[in-house]
């Protein structure tokens, strides 16, 4: 049997080292939880689900004139959901609930924040942000 030459051995060693590098554990930047924590997406997704369940699916009369328009996949790093006039998803938003990348804060703004329902919106969002998922008004 013929012995492998020097260049062949070197190529095999280089190939083995390359494969070993591919098998290493992912670093902190590679973990999916890092990206989620920074984007605010999880937080806004949970707020949107709670708003949909508590304000709309429950047929809450305070929100009967509105529709929910989620915009969670934002390339700006600011996932959000909107309340618009019922059945008019393309209309100008009456409420915007928006997250910020790298922050636990959310911004709420729009004409509804000057209406009596604003206190309810603020209380519900604060409760949901603290981890509760209930619909109690």
TrEMBL record:
<protein>
    <recommendedName>
        <fullName>Lipoprotein</fullName>
    </recommendedName>
</protein>
<keyword id="KW-0732">Signal</keyword>
<feature type="signal peptide">
    <location>
        <begin position="1"/>
        <end position="25"/>
    </location>
</feature>
